[in-house]
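hi!! sorry for the late reply, been swamped w classes. u asked for the two structures so here they r. pasted raw, havent cleaned anything up. first the sequence of the first protein and right below it the tokens
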Amino acid sequence: MMAGSSAKGLDLPSVDTDIKVTSVVQPQSSCPYRDSKQKIYGLGYNLIVFVYIKEDDTKQKKGKLNFLSCTFVESSRTADYQTTTGLRAIIANNGNEDDIFAFLSDHKIPGDDVTLMNMAHEILKSPPKIGYLTISNALQWRLQYSRIVALDETVDGITPIVKYNAKN
């Protein structure tokens, strides 16, 4: 097994997986921006997402982390939810390359007109699976996991290892 390093890339490169640990209060992290297609087809690697709640004991000057959930997310499900559902709706409604290009432009997917038109062509030929992250555009991607944390239904490619229960 190859040693991983978040500074160098993936935590578990031999299984193409990165580990994300985030608070339930604001379940998000960041990752390097490589290509605008990541928002549509996924990050290009799997995720294991650990979600915790932190409890501080100011008197004893101690903190405690309680892990609430752990979920494995396959690479194909690491795309942006709103983008992928929007694109799939356009395709289901007999949309063409121009419709997809307009959607990509309106949603400020990074790229020039030629890049976006090439992406539109590719999306029509190979529609993306629905992603379950919220990905914000920036110099690096801002990944938000609340949809995965709250997911109740079974989704191919998303495996809850420890399920979050908001009532606890």
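now the second protein. again sequence first, tokens right under
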Amino acid sequence: MSADWKNGKLKDILKLKRQSIKAGENTTLPYLPIDVIPMRTFALTDFKPNAEAQSSLITFDKNDIIIGAMRVYFHRVVLAPCDGITRTTCFTLAPYNNEYLSFALLCCDQESSIDYAQSTSKGSTMPYAIWEGGLGDMEIIIPTPEVAKKFNEIILPMLRQIQNSYFENNRLREIRDALLPRLMSGELDVSNIEI
């Protein structure tokens, strides 16, 4: 370990956010329940309609780290591509210093971090990871702000590309859904198009 790095805990670089929201309070925000968060990938592929958001709701902001806390062993960790709503079955986390965003996300996504969260979970039938006395207290080595900034400058553009692919995929899905019925019905004829 470099002499200017320090020992610390995950909660030294990340804060747990718990901003409650009532169902129907903000219908413009997309809904991200735990079952929609993909396993072992940052590539978010879908949201659910806001109308499905019913209880135990919390908001998240673009670039928050979202971790599925219920049955944490399913390894659901994503970087939010936009503001939205999830349930309290997830942790919504934000770095105290944005220069630590990439470092914090990759710390959370480590298999050893998921194992730690699982080992400190509460409950047997439906185990929930906990932040205080659990994942937040996981010991980590914290790089200097300068190193974290350089790391972020390298990794963040890749994370942005992953985030942007969500929006591009949605746009392509909408185009497909609009064109396919017209193609199938014969309303649109593409037989003369050369590719």
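hope this helps!! also noticed smth abt the second:
The chain is about 30% helix and 15% strand.
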